Sequence to fold (617 residues):
Amino acid sequence: MNKTTNAPSMSKQMLRTSRIGLAVILMSGIAQMLTAAPSGGPYGPIQQEWPLPEKAATVRYAAPDGDPNADGTSAGTPTTIESAIQRSTTGDVVILRGGDYRTGNLQLNQGITIQPFGLERPLLKGTAVASDWVKQDNGLWRTSWATLFPSEPADWWRRGRNGTITPPWMFNNDMVFVDGVPLRAVGWEGDITKDKFYIDYKAGHVYIGVDPTDRLVEITAYDNAITRVTGSVHGRESDRIGPTIRGVTFTQYAYRAIEIEGTNPEEVSPEANHGKMVVGTTLEHVTFSHCSRVAAYLRGDKMTIRNCLVSDTGTEGLFVLSSSDVWIEKNILRRNNMQGMLGYFPAALKIFNQCYRVTCVDNYVTEQPNSSGIWYDVGNWDGLFINNWIEQSNDGFFFEISNGAICAGNLFVDCNKGVRSLNSRDVHVYHNTFVNSVASFERTPRSAVGDHFGWHPASGPDVDEREGHRFINNLMIGESSFVGPLLQCEQTPSLCETLQNPQIAAMGGNLYVRESTAKAQPVVAWSPLIAEANCSKSFESIDELKPSLKGLGGSDVEWRNYHGYLLNGRLTGNYSLSEKAAVKAVSTKEVPVEILKKIGLGESDTALPGAFGKVSL
Fold:
């Protein structure tokens, strides 16, 4: 039978066109999707033998010890990677033999493909080997180094605010590795231990505290591996086609490994004005690790990032900037902001500055104690966030100063906030599972007037438009160690005289489960409630809140002090609901049928709450 839905359309005229665009995504080219809820893998790179593209123009082979004078068209006489990229044009394929390529600052402007030879493993490394060390009387070892990457503090840094928590030397981009293990930078020789290093930039000296004898010591020599430029290079003009890179590892680069150049609007910008200079970049089964800042800055429409590993970066993992129709699937994002920089708000994946229709599906984000997970930041439209597994992150899915998102079928475990909507509108949250992770909807008075980054708030909804959220059929679990509400709606008290409608427009079918705690904890914190102090109040029971919500949350259910058999394997990573829990099915009529299909529920009229909507024994 055909299922109908009464899920509302956007109320603002300026959103209607954009929402039509989202509907096109849901029903068309995204046939490459989908798993039902988080798949559990395989995530990240899978070693495989890549076939040659059927329409390859010229195939060139490169090796770490290749001959730069060879044309590389024979596997028996490979050239260097530098020569192969310089010679290749649109449609050509560069095949990399296995081994370490100590290289960087490569440039290209053609739609070429770069991939491994057979099952071999090519590694592009941004370091050089340091072998000339002098032992000092103070027990340290010193070497002179020519390729250093000092950097001034970023523009967000203010000495009076950040100087005591983030010293300025943390912004330098150099790295040192001993037998593949990174050392931590410090600000002077007196802080050096066996796992730390210091650089005297004026003298050009690097100091370490471990004996380098019979050790492999590597120091950064390149600040990036490959830049896809938008201008002319190697005697050719840009073809506006992005590269395809498969099965390659990039590691140990100062600053970033890959950059795709493009437009960076610093004002409110129509979609047609950015993302067009390079189109169609594809990164598949690529590994990025140990980049001192970011693994990659990526710009351009119709980009695909699939089965990549992004790990151990200094600040962000990946940056997607001012791009449309981007597909991000089955990646592993872990351990970024490894420096623990404070006063700065990084993310494993940041989707920044007026991106349209960026889809994140079935990614695995973990080990992020100093960072958020996936952050749609400033001026984004119609995000689609489906079937992702996010754990141990600050904000799992963060949607800030942006317009319209669907968040469905995701699992959030041990996040400070699983879902966080800040100064956004029309964020629709369906069938997610939250374990010790808050769902938070927030609005503040921040606007373009007097703001340090004035165009940031101007690119999103106005203060009085930050509403229209939907919170339907979610499973919220708070274990005995979890403190605070499971759901919160926050509003700055100064807004309460003018903004008295709830941020959430539709709410129901949610199940709140709390184990017993030493001290009673709220289930929900809600604002605005005009009759309350600061127009907000916390409630220990959802039933206490319902009379104030005028019909919102009428079908929500709460289990308090519950210690029964709820999940099939919390400790083993199985977050499906057990049949023994006897959780009642909820209506799906408020969920668009296209979304139900994406999260594996088909056209069913009922399902269980949460990301795993079918009973599992």
